[in-house]
Amino acid sequence: MIGGGRGSFIGAVHRMAAALDGQIELVAGAFSSDPACSRLTGQDLFLDPERVYPDYVSLLEKEALLPADKKVDIISIVTPNHLHAAPALMALDKGFDVVLEKPMAFSLQEARQLDQKRKETGKEILLCHTYTGYPMVKEARARIARGELGAVRKIYGEYPQGWLHTFLEGSQHKQADWRTDPARSGAAGAMGDIGTHIFNLIEYVSGLQVTQLCADVRTVVSGRRLDDDGAALLRFNNGASGTLMATQVAAGEENKISIRVYGEKGGLEWHQQDPNTLLLKWPDRPAEVVRTGTSYVSDAASHNTRVPAGHPEGYLEAFANLYRNFALALRAKASGQTPSAYIADYPGTTEGVRGMAFIDCMIDSSRAAQKWTDLTV
Amino acid sequence: MIGGGRGSFIGAVHRMAAALDGQIELVAGAFSSDPACSRLTGQDLFLDPERVYPDYVSLLEKEALLPADKKVDIISIVTPNHLHAAPALMALDKGFDVVLEKPMAFSLQEARQLDQKRKETGKEILLCHTYTGYPMVKEARARIARGELGAVRKIYGEYPQGWLHTFLEGSQHKQADWRTDPARSGAAGAMGDIGTHIFNLIEYVSGLQVTQLCADVRTVVSGRRLDDDGAALLRFNNGASGTLMATQVAAGEENKISIRVYGEKGGLEWHQQDPNTLLLKWPDRPAEVVRTGTSYVSDAASHNTRVPAGHPEGYLEAFANLYRNFALALRAKASGQTPSAYIADYPGTTEGVRGMAFIDCMIDSSRAAQKWTDLTV
Amino acid sequence: MIGGGRGSFIGAVHRMAAALDGQIELVAGAFSSDPACSRLTGQDLFLDPERVYPDYVSLLEKEALLPADKKVDIISIVTPNHLHAAPALMALDKGFDVVLEKPMAFSLQEARQLDQKRKETGKEILLCHTYTGYPMVKEARARIARGELGAVRKIYGEYPQGWLHTFLEGSQHKQADWRTDPARSGAAGAMGDIGTHIFNLIEYVSGLQVTQLCADVRTVVSGRRLDDDGAALLRFNNGASGTLMATQVAAGEENKISIRVYGEKGGLEWHQQDPNTLLLKWPDRPAEVVRTGTSYVSDAASHNTRVPAGHPEGYLEAFANLYRNFALALRAKASGQTPSAYIADYPGTTEGVRGMAFIDCMIDSSRAAQKWTDLTV
Amino acid sequence: MIGGGRGSFIGAVHRMAAALDGQIELVAGAFSSDPACSRLTGQDLFLDPERVYPDYVSLLEKEALLPADKKVDIISIVTPNHLHAAPALMALDKGFDVVLEKPMAFSLQEARQLDQKRKETGKEILLCHTYTGYPMVKEARARIARGELGAVRKIYGEYPQGWLHTFLEGSQHKQADWRTDPARSGAAGAMGDIGTHIFNLIEYVSGLQVTQLCADVRTVVSGRRLDDDGAALLRFNNGASGTLMATQVAAGEENKISIRVYGEKGGLEWHQQDPNTLLLKWPDRPAEVVRTGTSYVSDAASHNTRVPAGHPEGYLEAFANLYRNFALALRAKASGQTPSAYIADYPGTTEGVRGMAFIDCMIDSSRAAQKWTDLTV
Asked: How high is the pLDDT of residue D228?
């Protein structure tokens, strides 16, 4: 693991997600740009001090020299956005598969570089669009793909949060600090942090691609250096339309990412804060409440579920699904097999490059006088 | 009553709403452009056949000649949009107060004429934006007006329906038929029918005005002659922004108008399909579930409630609140008194003119290449 | 109308319910045991002073003498329990049909007398078990009757309220006052006021009868003279079992009557505070959300619905369904026709007698040392 | 680990729960009474084959001989009920701390023996009443303990499931098979499997003890050898009363354990299928929606939460809280420290003995002719 030292939020999440299924063991880390912090974090995690490194370069160099049965297989990079590309490129070069936090990089150009390097090295990248790991998101995608809703006409995606409704970066808040800093976060704040999630969820669930959008991106909280709010009208490659909303100033909201899709024959909706339920709506018969862990859901949903219906699974399980599928896919590859479709179904560089293009498109559109801006990769 | 013959939807709703509180009695009508239908409807309603008229002109002329203690006081006009202005103008001229269905008229010009006539005659117009009659909508408005949320920053208004997801007007469906006919509905279909409702709700609850919008208005169902779907980015007169959605092709949705407002200090949300609940959300303490009929709500909410908490009130009660407040305001006026603020709080021509301007602005913006279009009255 | 003077809760409810559908007109009343209050109430209601009577005896005697086309057809009795039987018996004797509040009488003996008198006079009684007027309650009954759940095995009925969680009768609260007074309420407080409602709902929805119960009835609030809380284990005539709960001391609850029924093949649940939804649950497929006003519900549900799906109907509409069905059934009878099954479907003396037997059984069982007490009519 | 071989449900849950926080590592096991199955399970889990044992006796004997820094610290016993006591007693004797599935034993007598042995050996037992591990259950307990509801008056606990609504044990269903077999499950089926959970939840949240109950326990599904359904009236040591329901034949239900508590000043409710929400209800102000991961919850709730508000935590996290607290408490003990109150807050033998007494009391009461049966430990 690179990053994720004491006090980190997402580093701890990655460790829990990776540990849950007993498929992946954390054995080495460069947890912080501060070597002392890295060392202490290693202690907290009961790691062999030999494999707790002061920086990512040492980690990658030294681990690469270890014998195959000892060295790490996967490098998880959980640093702020500006520190994704360099360690990831080096890890790929050294022959490691890579887990990367989203957005994939600091810029679209970096994202393209990573995608290129992945292809050159033949290694794999998992990009942590966690919300696609939920069983009911898989179910939604499967049902739309099967044509249950008919042709998709309307998509409404939302990601309201409230935690940045005040100038939190003014009070030594580590998470707020780097996310609102252009030097570490990139061209966008909220659009990169959560906009890319809802954009990815929309494209993943619908199987469609956004071709054009018209955005209004804003900085609502005074003094903030990056956007904290945005909305857009969307156009899709099949002629459908929709809206996307992402805001971090919806005071009182927690983490309410949700999606609604309507087709010719019916609609569906999913809300991350009630993740084990997928609602199907029909014009001529009762709405149906599809639930995680039941006997009637798709293989994709079942495979990504651990406990019977009525035993709620949440965010960490969704995250763990990414790790587990990545690990299973790598094992399959290592043994020369083709992983099943629902194992190979994890986000990677294709999604990452589109996400970076989305960020640029939102920012460009918001500044433009004309209505529509093309989203091109 | 003008319109509302057998088979009409909204005419029956008006009659129930007017009857509920025992303040208004239906005594005369011209229920249809077909005199026989008008007569039969009169019979259904146990009316004196003498006061069931073959057309609105006879009704207004003859009723105007009756003695003051006998003639009708209020004329309810529940016809399609193209038949609002003429009977309303004549009714005002003849000295009647008027109840009008929304949108107020066939065009912005007609709406301005009605507003002008109302001022000239000194009579009153009630415009049936039903959703503002709900107690929890009153409560939302009251709390925002009191500053409980702080300055408003974001407003999200939605009105998804699904009933026009097929070409219903092709199968002799009376409601679908006129609403999708430019000659009877006006410049817009869904934007007039339900777009004006959510626009009105947004302005009513927030106390703000939309100054600019950027719209994408569509006709999704093939063969349809007017729009059935739309969305817009919004800008408000205090600097806030938001989105508006109104669609009649969200297959599987019923009548799910809802609003969310976020301010500096918190947020609120209200859903018409669960109308007796208003949710207040706070960043630093539990969300609160405000309920109709409780001891702690505003006078505005209490006044518009009939039964104790836990006895659900619905659409007809909200509609009846418009009628009751209008009747009470007219009584107060008749006796030279000033009605209390929450009695005088019913929608009228100001809201009607803004609604017609909204329709034009949505259509214009949707056709425009530039992003923002001013909403001017 | 007998009772329902200024300040009354249920009298106003009856008037709104009766007025809603334009089938019934209020023309006469003895609204209070205080003639002045009766007179003022009549004024509030715009009644002819001639037909506002100082007491129920005058009302019944004088109305009986009026010509058939003038006199009232139906007498609504909305007084406290101890004043049900006498006016009802007299009304029946004078040839009027009767609407009665629940519980039907002060005692089981009175209830039997009323049932007997109804049979002798050939007149009709409507007993206001309002909750059976909801469309989704009709739907639940229809689906169970059709066998959709298979044989019923378990029934859970609840009626929690919180309004009597303090000694409210100590502070001049009219509603609390008579309901907790043995001289006016009868043998029971909460068991009569709300216990009979949930008991009726259980038997109505399931189509079964309680044969035995085991109760724990309590007076929780110190100083109270009647019960305010109770629960019972139930046994039904088909071998099913269940529980019943009714309490008025669940501090914070409004009026949360609900029912759940499970059969061999599935279950259903209905909650009065969300009345337009009926949830069907299945072991092998998604739960279904059945909704008022949709195209797919039973005739019984459709007949008792006024507005399209998504326009909430509530307590007053449910109440109005009782009145409307009663009026339609009386009209059918008057014209020698048999009303359709869903019109004749309103609660009457059979339900009333069973309700009074239920009250006695709850009180007896609670005092008994043995577990089970038979419920016999 | 003892038990939990391939195909086991709860064994896999224990492994995930133990792994989540990186505090506990699985290193040895006797996973099945079939040595081959045990060996294969060990392979699945990447264990050293040397430490995968053919039976629990070998495991305990051999591990006890290993050096302190190598041998296991904790023995998790995840076998059917009849195989709890023997390995647990031996594990305690050999100096291991023990994790036990509920109900604690096959009989009350065995439970007392285990409690006694624990005291004699000075070792610790964690009993897996998972539902008490949820943060919002901790919050509920904390708020009641602080007196926020005033004195508790009413408690309603429910645990409806539907998975045994058919004769599932007739079709080679491993989970159904042993749970309905008196030789493996004990005196009760559903009352032991889920009745003990809701009983424990009631006592844990309220801080009260059941002193008497009146039960109706049933076998609904024909051919079944143990109970699959039950309900009881409850009396508590502070004079409060309530009801308990536990059924496995509520066709269509998943795992809907829930609790409602009402005191003099307000009420609360918690539903396991929406576990991150605790609803507080007040008679004189809006209900409050308390949420996991927020800034305002108790230390007990915060300590048992891993991710920020809006990132759902579920069943596995609740389970992991038991393991983590047990591990932290053992570490504290090992280093001579007193763990904080919310770390020491895990269920153990006291709860286990009460649970077994509850089972006996339910069965005895159900067979008794008298109403109340004392629950004595």
From this structure: 98
Measured CB to CB, residues of chain B less than 8 Å from chain C are: 9, 12-13, 15-16, 19-22, 26, 45-46, 161, 163, 253-256, 272-276, 291, 293-294, 306-317
Q: Which residue of A has its CA nearest to D9?
A: A307
pLDDT in tens, A138-186: 999 999 999 999 999 999 999 999 999 999 999 989 899 999 999 999 9
Interchain contact, A286 vs C284, CB within 8 Å: no
**Three-state DSSP string of chain C:** CECCCCCCCHHHHHHHHHHCCCCCCCCCEECCCCHHHHHHHHHHCCCCHHHECCCHHHHHHHHHHCCCCCCCCEEEECCCHHHCHHHHHHHHHCCCEEEECCCCCCCHHHHHHHHHHHHHHCCCEEECCHHHHCHHHHHHHHHHHCCCCCCEEEEEEEEEECCCCCCHHHHCCHHHHHHCCHHHHCCCCHHHHHHHHHHHHHHHHHCCCEEEEEEEEECCCCCCCCCCEEEEEEEECCCCEEEEEEECCCCCCCECCEEEEEECCCEEEEECCCCCEEEEECCCCCEEEEECCCCCCCHHHHHCCCCCCCCCCCHHHHHHHHHHHHHHHHHHHHCCCCCCCCCCCCCCHHHHHHHHHHHHHHHHHHHCCECCEECCC
CB contact under 8 A, A286 and C295: no
Determine the distance in angstroms separating the CA of C142 from the nearest CA of chain D, rounded to an integer. Answer: 19
pLDDT digits (tens, 9 = 90+) for C350-371: 999 999 999 999 999 999 999 9
Pick the CATH number of D133-311+322-367 from 3.30.360.10, 3.30.300.130, 3.40.228.10, 3.40.50.300: 3.30.360.10
The predicted-structure confidence for A324-377, as pLDDT tens digits, reads as follows 999 999 999 999 999 999 999 999 999 999 999 999 999 999 999 999 999 999
Q: Do C45 and B26 touch (CB under 8 A)?
A: no
Q: Tens digits of per-residue pLDDT, D256-303? A: 999 999 999 999 999 999 999 999 999 999 999 999 999 999 999 999
Q: Name which of B149, B167, B216 to mutate to probe chain A: the one with the most chain A Cβ atoms within 10 A of its Cβ.
A: B216
d(CA D230, CA C254): 28
Q: How far is A89 from A100, CA to CA, in rounded Å? A: 11
pTM metric for this prediction: 0.97
Q: Check B262 against A250: CB less than 8 A apart.
A: yes
Q: What does the angle CA A20 – CA A24 – CA A27 come to, to the nearest 5 degrees?
A: 115
Instruction: Tell me which CATH homologous superfamily contains domain D10-127.
Output: NAD(P)-binding Rossmann-like Domain (3.40.50.720)
Domain boundaries, chain B: 10-127, 151-263+347-367
Q: Taking a C-beta distance cutoff of 8 angstroms, is the pair A289, A279 a contact?
A: yes
Superfamily of domain A151-263+348-367: Dihydrodipicolinate Reductase; domain 2 (3.30.360.10)
Cβ pairs bridging C and D (under 8 Å): 129
Query: Which architecture characterizes domain B151-263+347-367 according to CATH?
Result: 2-Layer Sandwich (3.30)
* Closest residue to B153, CB basis, from A163, A220, A235: A220
Query: Residue A287 and residue B252: Cβ atoms within 8 Å?
Result: yes
Regarding the domain delimited by C134-307+345-367, which CATH topology (the fold level of the hierarchy) does it fall under?
Dihydrodipicolinate Reductase; domain 2 (3.30.360)
- Which among B287, B288, B296 has the least Cβ separation from residue D284? B296
Q: At CB < 8 Å, which residues of chain A contact D? A: 9, 12-13, 15-16, 19-22, 26, 45-46, 161, 163, 253-256, 272-276, 291, 293-294, 306-317
Indicate which of A148, A153, A265 best probes the interface with B, i.e. most B CBs within 10 Å of its own CB.
A153
Given an 8 Å threshold on Cβ–Cβ distance, is C283 in contact with D220?
no
